[in-house]
Amino acid sequence: MKTMTTIPRGVALVAVLSVLTTLALLAAAFAVMMSLETASGRTALGKLQVEMLTQAALEHAQALLREDVWTQPGWDDYSEAWARAFRPQGEEGVELDGIAGGEEGRRGDGRWFEVRGPDGGLLGRYAFMIEDECGKINVNYAAALRSTQQDQGIGTFEVLLTDGQGRGLPLSLQGGERVIGYRYGRDGKPGQGGVDDNFTAMTYEHDGIDNNANGVIDEENEGIDEQEEYDAVVPRWDDRVFSSVREAMEVAMGGRAMSGAGYRALRRYATVVSRGRTMYMDPSEGGWCRQVNINAGSRMQVLKMMRAANFESQFEPNTRRMRGLVANVIDYRDENHVLTTMGDEYGVEGVCFNEILANEGSWSHEADHNEGWTYNRFELVHRYGCWYNLPERMSGVERWGYKMMEVSPPMGPRTVYERGRQVTMPVTARIQLSSDPQRIYASSAYNVFKRIQRDAGGWLPDMWKNGYLKVWTWKPAPDDFEYFPIVENGRDSLVVGFSSVEEYQRVKNWSQSVTNSVWIDTLWRWGDAIWCVMPEATEYWAFPTRYDPGVTPKEGLYYVAYIGEQNFRGNVPGAKFPRDPRTRSGPWRGYNRMMDVDGDPTKYSEREMEVLRQRDLVGTTMEIPDGETQIDLLRWAYKGGEPIRAKNGYIHIVLTTGRETGYAG
Q1: Which is more confidently placed, 55 or 568?
Q2: For labeling, which of 156, 269, 542, 625 is most exposed (least CB within 10 Å)?
Q3: CA distances (Å), origin 82, targets 130, 132, 530
């Protein structure tokens, strides 16, 4: 017997609807999850892009600072490239430091740098500012309120916070006292009052130094509650630290709020991020040592300081002369009129001279004694423009050039002199060259040149400016080279100008191929002498001081150098120059009485050739012929006749041609 179960039609419909509802809910949940995942992915992508843009801004800023270290390590100011690069240039800027209003009438203190993709689309932008904090007064360390508290130089607490009369920060004396009192906490003492927090009392009572800058040397309990017990990095007891300049200034003003203009003015002088140490790292010993007061230090302490400085940046390789320097430091500061000794070296007390006898050792040297490539150490004059532009007559010319190690992305337009005309190159790029050519010629002479180059610290900034980067193209002569003007250079890289993006790309491609071989043409030529007919073209020479096998001059002597003119009013030979074969034979302006002889390629300062005037001959029987009142002496005194010191047997000379030099057509 079969039994059949019948499901009512209404129940089946409900079941189907339940399944469909469940599927719809699942689909909706899936859609919501996918939407969340998509949003999360966009967020992660945006975060990654922001991080990359931030890293790009950081690398940009660090690159500017690294470049500044190479090109101008002596000082920093806001006129240099690292500071100018981020400032608004005509456009409205962006506010970065939170202080309304900018300097010099600009709105904002930064400008946007756009980052674009391969298709030219905008990916993002960044803005940054670099502010030099090292030259400011740190409100967490400066503690001097009068000049009498600054005579020892043993700690950063001697930096003048304010004297209430315009020195230090622009605060009243009471404001300065409030700042120091806040830092020292409730007991008003650095560290814990009445306690030798840094364990210096036993030493400071007998070291001959006014350690707490109160005008008394080695008094009882000196070293207890002295300023060094305050440590802004690890505050002791109830000491406090300012977290911002605004906080410190509001304390100085008795709790009153500062205006934006006042805060902006103070930020130029005050900081909380720079600091000095009472200890210094001695690299020769590999450990931390206490600072030494050079006015009170012993001979051994002064010697140790000078050795540490010499280890970091060598200024005296001779140990015996180093001892002589120490003896002179001690003699300079004392008033006992007794010669100080350091080892077997003596210092020099004040001596009155009534007669000076100088040894006359004049000689002349021709500047082109490196073009024949016959190595004679007593005659060979090392010229940078020759070592970086080896003669084309050599076989396998491409093997004598330098390699382009790195070519930067294209940069903006710059101006440069080209055959006496100031032109704008629409595209520039920074190019770093190999430190050595691909093949060395006359290796013994080249090794001497590399030593000379190290003595000079590498390339001088802008010594290649207005010259040409000469690129081998592997084409039939006369088109086997292309020339590109050099806008500027640092210690090891060039900024080169290009007429178009296509021209830049061609050089970029060559740098990645077998045709990667370049030279530097300074535009100076040689024939009967070294000469140049292009304006503001620089060349660098190193002349040997030992000019005779039988005469060995002492090391480190000073010399007065004169630059001789052999042109004699128009005697200019013909020669081929870059980028325009039509200028092969001139006409050139020829004889020029002006030249830049200050030895610094970064600044241009013409000097007139020396002359002999009729009034200089008064009292003699000599006269200037033809009724003239003066006659050219055909020479310039290098650096105005200032004595220059030889380096390792060579005199370094840097010359730049005058602005009126050049093509006369």
Answers
A1: 55
A2: 625
A3: 7, 10, 37
Contacts of 30 (CB under 8 A, 6+ apart): none
- For residue 277, the model assigns a pLDDT of 63
Q: Residue 54 and residue 128: Cα distance in Å, rounded?
A: 10
H-state helical runs in 556-624 = none
Mean pLDDT of all residues in 195-216: 78
Between CA 654 and CA 640 the distance in angstroms is 13
Whose tokens are 């040997």? That residue is 544
pLDDT at 280: 66
Cβ-based neighbours of 208, under 8 Å, separated by 6 or more: 217, 218, 296
Strand locations in 47-162, DSSP E? 113-116, 122-126, 137-138
Q: Give the Cβ contact number of residue 458 at 10 Å.
A: 13
How far apart are alpha carbons 285 and 311 in whole angstroms?
A: 10
- Nearest CA to 179 out of 150, 143, 208, 149 is that of 143
Residue 596 has pLDDT above 90, yes or no: yes
Q: Give the count of alpha carbons within 13 A of 600, CB side only.
A: 11
Computed from CA positions of residues 455, 457, 461, 462, in that sequence, does the dihedral angle turn out positive or negative? positive
SS3 497: strand
The token duo for 264 is: 């902006």
* Residue 310 DSSP class: H
CB 425 within 8 A of CB 537: no
Q: Which segments of 466-521 does DSSP mark as H helices, in order?
A: 501-510
Q: Strands 279-282 and 287-290: what pairing?
A: antiparallel
Q: Which residues of 69-98 are buried (b: 16+ CB within 10 A; e: fewer)?
A: eebbeeebeeebebbebbbbeeeebbebee
Q: Which pair of tokens denotes residue 176?
A: 């300065």
Q: Is the separation of the CB atoms in 625 and 584 below 8 Å?
A: no
Range name among 99-113, 201-215, 484-498, 557-571 with the lowest pLDDT average: 99-113
* Per-position b or e across 605-626, b if 16+ CB within 10 A of its CB: ebbebbeeeeeeeeeeeeeeee
- What tokens appear for 625 in the block? 């012929």
Residue 409, token pair as written in the block: 């992305």
Centre a 10 Å sphere on the Cβ of residue 392 and count the other Cβ atoms it contains. Answer: 13
Reference 207, options 226, 193, 191; nearest CA is 226
Q: Determine how many CB atoms are found less than 10 A away from the CB of residue 162.
A: 24
pTM for the model stands at: 0.49
Beta carbons of 126 and 50 less than 8 angstroms apart? no
**C-alpha Rg value of the chain to the nearest Å:** 36
378 pLDDT above the threshold of 90: no
Q: How far apart are CA 374 and CA 200, in angstroms?
A: 67
